Amino acid sequence: MAFDVDGVFTDNSVILLPGEQPLRIMNVKDGYALQHAVKMGYHIAVITGGKSEAVRERFKNLGVKDIYLGCSRKIEAFEEFIHMYDIDPKTMLYMGDDVPDYEIMKQVGLPTCPADASEDIKAISMYVSPHKGGHGCIRDILEQLMKIQGKWYDPDSHHLTKDALNW
Q: How do strand 45-47 and strand 2-3 relate by DSSP bridges?
């Protein structure tokens, strides 16, 4: 599976500070779901036009190995990813929100988008999350997918112990 960043993991807003890289806010529950998917063995790519090293660090900390920054044509990074792992694009999920994601979304088997995606992207999506970008759309699609595949609940990945439940 593969994901765009701005407008999917974020609400498309950036905070501009003098002399600094733009700041982005990401949803922690989206991050948890992504990290859980990595632990469950899914190959995941993050493909973005942005060049922020903070974005690279965030996804690296979540366990994502395939992080493509500064992609003027996202389809090129996507093709590199599927060739590296010998993945049939028709077996893949992709979540994007705007025109730069269009080419990839036309190639994957499960194109998805957040509730506030552009109309062009909504029109080609097989699933439109009820959640907006940066507000749980990643958690929504990953939780549904992993529940269907029996991979959502894994006692080894949760932090509550049996003793913690006996209060």
A: parallel
* 29-78 confidence digits (pLDDT tens): 999 999 999 999 999 999 999 999 999 999 999 999 999 999 999 999 99
Q: Mutual orientation of helices 137-148 and 28-39 as an angle, nearest 10°?
A: 30
**In the chain, how many H helices and how many E strands?**
6, 6
Domains by residue range for the chain, with CATH: 2-154 (3.40.50.1000)
Q: Partners of 3 in the beta sheet?
A: 46, 95
> In this structure, what is the dihedral angle of CA atoms 84, 88, 93, 94, given to the nearest 10 degrees?
60
Check if the beta carbon of residue 116 is closer than 8 Å to that of residue 96: no
Can you tell me the distance from the alpha carbon of 162 to that of 141, in angstroms, rounded to the nearest whole number?
29
What pTM did the predictor assign?
Answer: 0.90
- Alpha-carbon torsion 154, 157, 160, 161, what sign? positive
Distance CA 136, CA 152 (A): 16
Read off the pLDDT of residues 87-110 as tens digits, 9 standing for 90 and up.
999 999 999 999 999 999 999 999
CB 33 within 8 A of CB 22: no
